[in-house]
Design brief:
By secondary structure, this protein is mostly helical. It is about 65% helix and about 0% strand. Helix 2 packs across helix 4 and helix 7 runs antiparallel to helix 8.
């Protein structure tokens, strides 16, 4: 049986660390992006952080608490109300790339995660060209 991305990243603790580091980076480096999250003041709530951590654990092949609690992610539907252009996509991906680099050692797991995240970020872009 082949290793999941969740396993390649080191399991639950490192994946949750990525989630927290991601929102820390967003608050620090991309305040306009952070303001899109409730309470819309440039901070990310603990609930949003926990939900994303659960999503990331599930999405990388770990335990399915997110799926059991919230259902299918339906990323396009959940983000459709946000105008996501290339600049927003790139800002989001910058935060994720820095969070991964700060949370786990370099290697095939982090590289695979960033590649998948880049695909998702481009998929969610709904304003302007998506060819980056």
């Amino acid at each position: 049986m082949s290793e999941t991305l969740f396993e390649a990243l080191g399991g639950e603790a490192p994946v949750r660390a990525i989630s927290n580091a991601f929102y820390d980076e967003m608050e620090l480096r991309e305040p306009a992006l952070a303001r899109l999250h409730p309470p819309f003041d440039g901070t990310i709530s603990s609930k949003a952080r926990a939900d994303f951590a659960d999503f990331l654990v599930f999405w990388t092949g770990g335990p399915k608490q997110y799926l059991e609690r919230r259902g299918h992610p339906r990323l396009g539907m959940r983000h459709a109300h946000l105008p996501i252009d290339a600049a927003m996509r790139d800002a989001w991906l910058r935060c994720m790339t820095i969070a991964v680099a700060h949370s786990i050692p370099a290697g095939p797991g982090p590289e695979a995660l960033i590649a998948r995240m880049a695909d998702v970020a481009t998929f969610l872009q709904n304003v302007g060209p998506t060819d980056g």
